[in-house]
Amino acid sequence: MHLSEIWIYPVKSLGGIRLKEAKVEEKGLQHDRRWMIVDQHGRFITQRTNAKMALLDVAITSDGLLISERKDQQNYIQVPFENKHNSTLEVKVWKDNVCAYTVGKEIDDWLSTNLGKPVRLVSMDDLTHRPMDPDYAVFTGAGVSFADDFPYLLTCESSLKDLNDRLVIPVEMKRFRANFIISGSQPFEEDTWQYIKINGLHFNVAKPCERCVMINIDPFSGNKGLEPMKTLATYRKENKNILFGQNLTAQQTGIVREGDRVEFVRK
Predict the structure, then answer these.
(1) In this predicted model, what pLDDT tens digit does every residue of 161-184 receive, in sequence order?
(2) Which uninterrupted H or E stretch holds 159?
(3) Buried/exposed code over 62-101 (b: 16+ C-beta within 10 A; e: otherwise)
(4) Element (H or E) spanning 195, and its range?
(5) Which end is more exposed in the chain, N or C (fewer Cβ atoms within 10 Å of the end residue's Cβ)?
(6) In sequence order, which residues have a C-beta less than 8 Å from that of residue 66 and are 6 or more positions away?
(7) Residue 179 carries which DSSP code?
């Protein structure tokens, strides 16, 4: 098995970026989900409630992020890595209240215009702490980014092929927004893994990823349908949860690269 693709999603629920190599950190891959869009009450917003987010792409530049509208690449805004404002704002991600940093009014206004509602962009620095579920944390006090629950998400090409063989119109892996895409495994073999190694770095396979209607949103058009959730429900449903992919936590930091060998340490 090997690591066929590496992805990060710097702004939660906006477009992803494919990388050749990435830095493994406690909260997730470097820059992954370190920014988030919130409403006027500080509550996080995702494609679940605003599918227009699927049409905003993100790129990394030498000094920050470039967010652009896919259908009009001249319509863009830059987000610096160095936050000069440092105004704090308490935001809510699911059940967690997190102290985040505002980024800037110009950026907020641009996002509000493109998403059709008043929003703000906030960031998370290295000192911001959002604790993981202690039942799955590698060590006491382990943290996570603005991701839903876990620092890392893994999917397998063979599992997607198994799904696509059952669909009338196949879907791409982009719908599942994984960090690591694995090639060379058997379909849903990842369900049996307990620990894996990527380039010698150990990861705990914590629990299956419970999918929501967001996977029914076409990442290219922003249109919402019934698939692949409808088909997954026929054979990947467990205790009312529809499962695809595995959530991971990292036991150590380091570098992973596209093409790295992947080994399961324990099933």
Answers:
(1) 999 999 999 999 999 999 999 999
(2) helix 157-164
(3) eebbebbbeeeeeeebebeeebeeeeeeebebeeeebebb
(4) strand 195-198
(5) C
(6) 58, 59, 60, 76, 77, 78, 79
(7) S
Cα–Cα distance measured from residue 85 to residue 2, given in angstroms and rounded to the nearest whole number: 42
Pick among 2.60.40, 3.40.1000, 2.40.33, 3.30.9: CATH of 2-13+19-26+133-266: 2.40.33
Q: Which two tokens stand for residue 174?
A: 């982009």
Residues 194, 192: Cα–Cα separation, whole Å: 7
The residue length of the chain stands at 267
How does pLDDT run across 106-123, given as a tens digit for each residue?
Answer: 999 999 999 999 999 999
Strands 152-156 and 180-183: parallel
User: Do 37 and 124 meet the contact criterion of CB atoms below 8 Å apart?
Assistant: no
pTM confidence score: 0.96
Q: Where are the domains of the chain?
A: 2-13+19-26+133-266, 34-123
**Using CA atoms, how far apart are residues 213 and 48, in angstroms rounded to an integer?**
7
Residues 214, 48: contact at Cβ < 8 Å?
yes
Tell me which amino acid residue 70 is.
R
Q: How far is CA 180 from the centre of its chain?
A: 10
Q: Of the candidates 69, 103, 75, which has an alpha carbon nearest to the alpha carbon of residue 88?
A: 103
